[in-house]
Design a protein that fits this description.
Elements: H1 7-24, H2 30-43, E1 48-50, E2 53-58, E3 61-67, E4 70-72, E5 76-81, H3 90-103, E6 107-112, E7 119-124, E8 131-135, H4 148-164, H5 171-184, E9 189-190, E10 194-199, E11 202-208, E12 212-214, E13 218-224, H6 231-244, E14 248-254, E15 258-264
Parallel strand pairs: 5-6, 8-15, 13-14
Antiparallel strand pairs: 1-4, 2-3, 4-5, 6-7, 9-12, 10-11, 12-13, 14-15
Helix pairs in contact: 1-2
Length: about 270
């Protein structure tokens, strides 16, 4: 006996997808396939929600919102694509995972109407167990009093978010959460830190980053869904620290099974 999650319902949904593609053929846009799939769902009495929206709040402030294509039986999330020249990429799996996380569903289907035939991929979501990992060895030559305020704030923030929101959201969600929490605790918070790119005393450009400046003393970068931040994240953090004359940087990664906090110095 198969132990696939919602196997019979998945079989019905796949049948609906293939019926739509057989009837319409290749070459239409996503919305056309979407509307045709709705018609098949109605004809076959599959209960569904279309363009469902989910809003995430923290401290009464909206931090992110999601809109998925379809939810069938209030169990399975469907994300439709028209990808004629490629197949599903990691970004597509990540997008559906974010939706499963936001709606607290266990199964999603990625559907591609863009090939010579329709294709369907199953995506499973299970709330991961996580642990907090810290590495502040980069600060060992600095007095703790110079950075411990933001270090402790970020650790407290990470633990709270892990407990109340969990892993699996996109970086934008966690960045918004950090901004709201910093403002709630009256910590000076500059979003999208802008830095000058200078060559031989000449201003080349004003570079807008996705980093935060907290308390005017620390630069913070939020990452998500990574096993480990890439070396590039540490390299650019050092560049940004030197550029703005700040000694302390933090990379906070809401990873797949860990929440990681790394200290970075400008040297």
């Amino acid at each position: 006996m198969s132990d696939l999650l919602f196997e019979e319902k998945t079989f019905q949904l796949r049948g609906a997808v293939f019926e739509v593609f057989k009837g319409l053929g290749a070459g239409w846009d996503e919305e056309t396939y979407h509307q045709a799939l709705i018609e098949v769902f109605r004809a076959t009495c599959i209960p569904f929600q279309t363009k469902a929206r989910q809003v995430i709040f923290h401290r009464g402030v909206e931090v992110d919102r999601f809109e998925c294509d379809l939810i069938a039986w209030d169990l399975i999330v469907l994300e439709l694509k028209v990808l004629p020249l490629t197949t599903f990429a990691p970004v597509h799996y990540a997008q559906l995972t974010h939706y499963l996380k936001a709606w607290n569903k266990r199964l999603g289907l990625l559907v591609n109407f863009g090939g010579t035939k329709a294709s369907v991929a199953r995506v499973l979501w299970k709330k991961p167990e996580w642990q907090l990992v810290e590495d502040f060895s980069a600060f060992e030559n600095y007095p703790p009093t110079e950075y411990q305020f933001i270090r402790d704030f970020l650790k407290s923030f990470a633990l709270f978010i892990g407990e109340h929101f969990g892993l699996g959201f996109p970086e934008l969600t966690y960045r918004s959460l950090l901004g709201v929490e910093a403002n709630a605790q009256s910590i000076a918070c500059q979003h999208n830190l802008t830095l000058p790119a200078i060559w031989n005393d000449k201003l080349l450009a004003e570079h807008k980053t996705d980093h935060f400046l907290l308390d005017n003393t620390c630069v913070v970068n939020i990452r998500a869904n990574l096993e480990y931040p890439p070396r590039y994240d540490f390299a650019r953090m050092k560049t940004y620290l030197r550029t703005c004359g700040v000694k302390f940087g933090f990379i906070l990664n809401f990873g797949r099974k860990q929440i990681q906090i790394f200290g970075v110095n400008p040297e």
